[in-house]
Amino acid sequence: MELKEVDAIIGRWRNTPGELLSILEEVQEKEGYLPKEILRYISKKLDIPLSRIFSVATFFAAFSLKPRGRHTIQVCLGTACHVRGAPKVLNELKHTLQIDVNDTTEDRKFTLTTVRCLGCCAIGPIVRIDNDTHIRVTPRKIKSILSKYD
What is the Cα–Cα distance from 33 to 81, expressed in whole angstroms? Predict the structure, then answer.
């Protein structure tokens, strides 16, 4: 992302309530994460200590300081999904993608995360990829599910 794009984002949100959150959200939407050099630039432009910006960026789970994949995979590890086999599903995803939880594949296609509950307890284990919810997932279904994403 070029700095003139960052300037345009700052200009859109300057002097509005919650400007920092809005700026960070838009930068992440365009970049896929919050690059440290852009955070330093925002700090200087807004005259906000870099430590405060990092505090905000690390407090909210929606923000990432590491590049994320084009697709975010969430594996539910809530009690109902857990007893129905979610740990085996997670292990198969880790094995297939060759990454660990909170990591991104080398090609930046997938980022693997876990959540405590997606509210679909009766149809678990649940795997959500972006906005798609996959129900009653088993380890044998993983490769087929992943093949649906470019």
Answer: 29
